[in-house]
User: Fold these one by one.
Assistant:
Number 1:
Amino acid sequence: MGGILRLRSKSVKAILSGECLIVRGNREINVLRGKRKIGTIKNGVLELSPLEGIYLMKKGKIKAFHMGKEINVDQLLQKVDFKRYHVFEDLTEKGYLVKSGHKYGADFRVYEKGDDPDKEHSSYLVRVIGEVESVKAYDLLALARVAHSVRKKLILAIVGEEGEVTYYSVKWTKL
């Protein structure tokens, strides 16, 4: 037989616990994380944000369970903001590593393709805004100033009604 044998990858089990998905087992954690460094390892388990969990569920990498019952992507999508998920998915599909940016007042901090968050700093702060939302100039200026002070580029991710994402760079300049 000269054919190629393809091994079907088995989905890893993740348990919904509070606001995150928990994955146990070193092998399972290594399979999911690979070089991407998705999630956060705490106390020997992998914690995935709901956004990371949804992304991995859509890719067939994990199956999520809550109280012993499997939950689907739509059930998990109810826990997150539609716009934020579209930006997370878009950036992840483009090869960036996306992590929470809340400590900076942004939606996400984003690492360049191939960067290791354990060794390098993120390059961008991303603020997600709906196409029809208004933004206070003061809030935008404050975030631009924070981004500048921590040496990151501020990106506004504008999400349309159909989920399309347009990115704009904002630069803080002191005159």
Number 2:
Amino acid sequence: MVDDRLIEVGRPSSRFMRKYGLNWFSEGENEDYFAPELLSVTEAQVEHFRAQAASLYELALRAARHVSERQLWAAAGIPDNAVELVEYSIHKENGLHLAGRFDFAGGLGRAPLKLLEFNADTFSLAPETATVMPHQLELLPRQHRKNARQYNNLLPGLAQSFRRILSQQPNRRPSLLLSGLGHEEDWFNLELIAMAARQAGFQEVELMLLEKVIFSEDDGIFIETGPEEYLQFDFWFKMVPWDFIAYEEPELMDLLAKIVKRDLATVLNPAYSMLLQSKALLPFMQELSPGHPALLRSSLKREDMPYGDTYVSKPIFGRTGDNVSIFRHGRLAQANEGDYGDFPLLYQELARFDQDVDGDCYQPSVFSAGSEPCALCLRRQDGLIVDDDAEFVGHVILGESDE
């Protein structure tokens, strides 16, 4: 149980949230989103999270190259209209991955640390981690404040990742367009990423709805700034998953393939992040490193989970717990409906979560800026499927005298 490591600090104030334009996260249905406690973790636990995230990142890249070399695209969940660009990206855009987030179970005490999935393409929880979590650290009771800190280098990590990408693209202008589908939460994440880009030296940074962006196979990526006036960008960050583009916007997929291969713009995260994000990559990671301590047994075949096993099924490109089902001893025990039921399913051994006395489960997540792990955050759920109802939980590393 983690109860004796929860330290009451209170939820962030409305004044603080308004000051940073984040009040959407704490109003209406979201008023209980931020947990009023911080979870105390040890330096050893943080180092274990960091080391495993770094190891898994390299393993995921190995698995992606393995898929490419053997042309196992269908088995890895990559649709036909994305293969050309993903394969190009693996070979030509190495090192251009901005950031992603590993979601884990365990690692906080009793349960072993196990990877659930890698959000390598699009990721959320950035403003909560970079802005709200440090604020809650300042709310610690006085007896815990001395030497208290957090593993939270998300904003500096993103900025450093942008610098690395700029250095690898010396012929590109430092102009960045960031786009989303219009979801409120996405804009907050995009604004934080834009802040990191400015810190890294991007001189022209704009945000624009995807539907208003102009894509040209001859000239690149633009927005319209006035009648017959256009602004071209050398970099485009999209809070729009590659799988969404491939399946829902095939014409855009074709355009982006031409834009990238003709070197007209750099798209972040690059197309190979679609493969890294596919849960169908997990069995390949297990195949390449069968003894990896953080990997759960997984397969795209139901029959690989012997009858009587306890396991999870989830869409290879699902999100927020949608269409996830839990089976205990071969029988359905819990299930979420959602919008991703048409995707193939990954079957994964059920992980053990660290819990509190109420039975709530704690899911740690580690951000990685490129290959460099840089921050830890957690979510808390009153069930084994972490979804949109989960609370955000910050952490604290206490000084030795406070532990």
